Amino acid sequence: MGRLSGFRVTITQVFRPRVTEKFPQEKRPKPPRFHGRHVLNRYEDGMEKCIGCELCAGVCPAQCIYVRGADNLTDAPVSPGERYGFVYEINYLRCIHCDLCVEACPTEAITETKLFEFSFARRQDAIYTKDELLVDDEGRARRQPWELWLGGEDDETSAWMRATSSSGNAAYENRVAWSGELGFGVREPERGQGGDPGALPAPDQGGVS
Amino acid sequence: MTTNAVPMSQWPSEHRYTIPVAPGPETVTVTIDGRAAQIPRGELLIKAAQDHGTYIPRFCWHERLKPVGMCRMCLVEIEGMRGLQISCATPVADGMVVHTTSDAVTTAQDGILEFLLINHPLDCPVCDRGGECPLQDQTLAFGPGESRFVEEKRHFEKPVPISDLVMLDRERCIQCGRCTRFADEVAGDPLIDFGGRGGSTEVITYLDEPFHSSFSGNTVQICPVGALTARPYRFRARPWDLASTETSCGACAVACRGSLESTSNRLVRLLGVDSEPVNQGWLCDKGRYGLDWVHSDARLRQPMVRRAGELVESSWPDALDAAAAAIRNTLDTHGPNGIAVLGGSRGVNEDAYLWARLAKGVLGTDHVDAQLGDGLPADVVLGMPRATIPDLDRAKAIVLLAPDLKEELPVLYLRVRRAAHDLGVPLVDVAVRDHGLTPYATAVLRHAPGDPGAAAGVVADALVGRPGRTKVGKAIVDATDGRDGPVVVILGRTSVAEHPDAIVHAASRLTGLPQVRFLSALANPNVHGALDLGLTPGFLPGRVSLDAGRDHFTKAWGAVPDAVGRDAAGILRAAATGEIAALVLVGCDPLAECPDRNLARAALEQADTVIAVSAFMDTAAFGATVVLPPTVWGEQSATTTNLEGRVVRLGRRVTPDGSTLESWRIPAELAARLGSDFDLETVDEVQDEIARVAPAFAGVDASLLRRARDGVVLPLADHADEVTFGRAGAGPGPSWEPILPVPEVVGDDDRSPSTSASDSPSAAVPAPTPPVPLHRWDAPPDAPSVPPLDAYALRLVAGHALYGADAIVAATPALASLTHEPTLGLNARDRDRLGVHDGDRVRITTARGSVDLAVRTDAQTPPGTAWIVANAAGPGAPDLIDLTSPVTELRVETIS
Amino acid sequence: MSLEQIPHNFLTARLEDLVQWARERSVFPATFGLACCAMEMMATGAAHYDLARYGMEVWRASPRQADLIIVAGRLSQKMAPVLRQVYDQMVEPKWVISMGVCASTGGMFNNYALVQGVDQVVPVDVYVPGCPPGPETLFHGILTLHHQIRTGELLRRREATGAGAGIQLDQRDGTPSHVQPIPVRRKSA
């Protein structure tokens, strides 16, 4: 081989499959418990699920959520019950996507999508208000100009799942506790993180009940 | 083992509800969870356990209410007694051995909580109590992990308003009875009670009458679940958002202690702090919910200066320069007697002192008055022997020569009611018309407006054992027979439509009684501080007269005025005639507060210069030359003086919006611009200067005020033993339990004499003798002559309503809706004699003016008199009253 | 004479496009990895995402050869002067990406030890959220910066706002205007 032996490594690499992602055109698949930016969900009749209880704000370790509740109007309620989220803001320059808000939410109003490709040229853009977080009439996340959504990505949105698996079992699929509806309309709960489905614990063990 | 308990119906309602037991040693030995403790005889087991470090869970029991044993949460096991006992209604007995954590007890607690949660909705996320809820906390600490109840919970319409301020959610109610017992036992407004049976028991109001109590907010505070929520606070914040500071309420002169809570730099809640000598944990609704005015859009946030006839926003240096220039200009043209300072009774001690120093020490004018003709002569207030609020509980008798305390000083009403109703102190009511305390009076004396002297004479005789020929005299003698203790006279303006001389004369009849002490019933928040600190003609700070304190203050200040100046009525008259050219209005609006509005209007129109220190663009500020907006309650730390002469600290919870100046800096800055720098940098320095200079405040410096738990009563020399310091490590408890006052921690304050003193409650307070003897009131005035009643005229009685037209109410949306249109209250007999009906508009004419008002039948008003609220918005009593005449007679004519 | 000083006409406009294209395609970042975000920053430069596709293959250890500084991680108060010095040593035109929430606002470390947002020290052009941002997110931020360089919005905005200074946070709070008090029966006084 002589002189060519130095090129052996190079030539070998040339015929290997490419690992580089065509990033802006394609994304790598996200793992099942990936935490992207949030959405605020609605019921099928259009009512907001958020009741303004501020539990998400209370649990948030980065203090990035700001919520204020207000009395629902009796003739034109925003959410079922007495109270609704009058102000809802998330500062994405503080959010660490820990998903504790999702765990804390008693009505599954806030869930996270898989969208993580966003950046801001202005600080103000980073503070998402309720208008930006709330799902649209189709139950899909509202796309902001500074977010990179690819086709079909919002199908993956808003499936509810605990940040940490119950009972420490990564393969466990949580059940929906509060209602059968997620996002807008009924969607499948998300799949577990691999593992043999037969080995799953019975739903009664360690799930939400 | 026997406790010899008497039936519950015979229990006395004392503050700590001990149960009378057979006589024996003072303390008994009780073993609680293996620890022996010495406990006062008759103490309730739940309280004894709490004081010795064992918390027994409870819902219905509250230290300030009678025990009922409704919730059964406080069950404990007592050796030798069958079954479990409720510790909230069991007095301790010698040799008692108590277990609070045995298996039987925990099983019972599990059962009780599971039972309470059967019907309790789990809507904690939307419940205002969620996060500080006793039911949540105790379920977590003592409850079962799960419920076996799978059936439908009970449902009610929710929430329903039971008053303008309180919402009731009947689903959440656990029937502990705290609210109903409070309304009945403490407030004396039994307007709510339980209705229904079994599972459908609910709190109800009368069909035709909502829960209209001035104390309804207390039920929200002590509710152990979220069944009662306050409409002003509803959904404003969650408990974990709140930051709190201990302060005193700024709504009236009682200065109740409270815990002021804010979120996002907005005041959202005031909770009553259980200050034993003052408010014992309660607040009135005006104080509790009068918070939003601090953040009102109507607040002035920039100083304003009149330029070319228009008030324009300005910077502070420019505005202060303009004010100083206007004052200097008046000094040049009219001399010191051309300037007068009015107001200061709604401020704080520090600004009152500095305004007095500015006026009397720098400007040289004694035309200074904090009261606008609606108060008592300073000679009386400063010189009378003073009572404290706890004196009410141990008094021989309480004599009311005061306006309706329920409207003007609501928490003082609670204390008087407790003394009279629960502690059995005889209450003598001398007034023109019936009021909130009349039902609790032992003897009721009614007199014609302007003539309380004769009635006071009867009381004075009866209190020394001479019943005379009257029935009330005999009743007073019977009630006070064998009692000793001070006679507490609550002295105030029974009606602002009569001259104060009448009430002063009546009070002078009582000064001869043994151990007589007076409690002033002036209502403005810091009127006593303002008077104490010299904002009144003829007096210098610290309750000394101009002559007595001349040498002392000349040394301290450099100069004092030569002669006694005019009072508010005199100042306004002099301003109306042009003798006084410049008026400085310190947080007061004469057009709204002075009982004689015509005089105030003339004075403000005639004055060349009006400098208004005002947080709002009120009518006085509207015509002012310079408007200087101060920071207000909740935005600055300061001190205030309540009606006992108790100096307490005010806490700062929010940062003021806009550009306002701490209220005490305004006179200090003006003085600096007028060539006399006070050299005061911090509010502590002002307090220290007051302690150094003002004789009545001797020893009451910033460091003592920081450490004193319930404030300091003036003069310190007489009340040094009443000063209590906080316990080390004591912190505020949950809001539904009595919140104990905690003084500010002064760990690194090297100016405090010794840091250990703040930990020990028994530390002696150095009480220096005042350098100048304090003023004493003697020389009772001659009896004023009251003109005979004109057969066709009615005599006007005018008093203040709780929700009047002041800034706190007007700028707080929750309270503004509680105000009423002023009406003419007439006795049914007079109404029929005049041939008018309820709602008819009539023209009321006095020598001073005339107004049109609607008629309302008022059973509290006796025949021959007419009742008009003096502090309502719009035309009313102030248009009718002449400050100089002894009484106000009015004629009523119907208008079509 | 810098680009901005050339009088504007058809030719110079085309020249400007060319220059901006060139700038966009040759951004050399300086390394400023302060914490965990630096791992993701390295991953972004590695084969899977391959920044070299956008002309960014060289990470410069010398500020004089860099156009872009990616502040990756929480900036302590002690490190702040160093950041400023490195930024000052870079030659114009230069850009800053604040990577991750700690760099952008202090993130969950709301305390005295950290600078609560590096825009208090240097003017930031693009904020990248995430704790830490994944390579895609940082890549998205870099593409946002590229877009800004190409459209020239960056220069205009710097003139208008002083670049990154003067943060305005709108709380958008208040009482909803439609909340009406519920009437109750009242006794007349």
Q: Could you please describe the fold and organization of this structure?
A:
The complex is a heterotrimer of chains A (209), B (896) and C (189). In chain A, 12% of the residues lie in helices and 11% in strands. Chain A has 209 residues and is low in regular secondary structure. A 3-stranded antiparallel sheet of chain A has the order 2-3-5. The longest helix of chain A is centred in the first third of the chain and has 7 residues, at 8-14. With 896 residues, chain B is of the alpha/beta class. Among the domains of chain B are: 8-101, Ubiquitin-like (UB roll) (Roll), CATH 3.10.20.740; 304-375 and 528-733, Rossmann fold; 382-520, Dimethylsulfoxide Reductase, domain 2 (3-Layer(aba) Sandwich); 794-894, Beta Barrel (Barwin-like endoglucanases), CATH 2.40.40.20. Chain B contains 28 helices and 36 strands. In chain B, a hairpin with a 3-residue loop joins strand 23 (539-540) and strand 24 (544-545). Chain B is globular. The N and C termini of chain B lie far apart (78 Å). In chain C, helix 2 crosses helix 5 (135-151). The longest helix of chain C has 17 residues, at 135-151. Chain C has helices at residues 10-24, 37-45, 80-89, 100-105, 135-151, 153-161, and strands at 29-33, 68-72, 95-99, 126-128. Chain C contains 6 helices and 4 strands. In chain C, strands 1-2-3-4 form a 4-stranded parallel sheet. The radius of gyration of chain C is 22 Å and the shape is globular. With 189 residues, chain C is an alpha/beta fold. The chains are: A little secondary structure (209), B alpha/beta (896), C alpha/beta (189). The A-C interface holds A 19-21, 23-24, 27-28, 61-64, 66, 68, 70-71, 73, 86-87, 89, 91-98, 116-121, 123-124, 126-127, 129, 146, 148 and C 47-50, 53, 101, 104-108, 110, 117, 119, 125-131, 133-134, 136-137, 139-141, 143-144, 148, 153, 167-173, 175-176, 178-179.
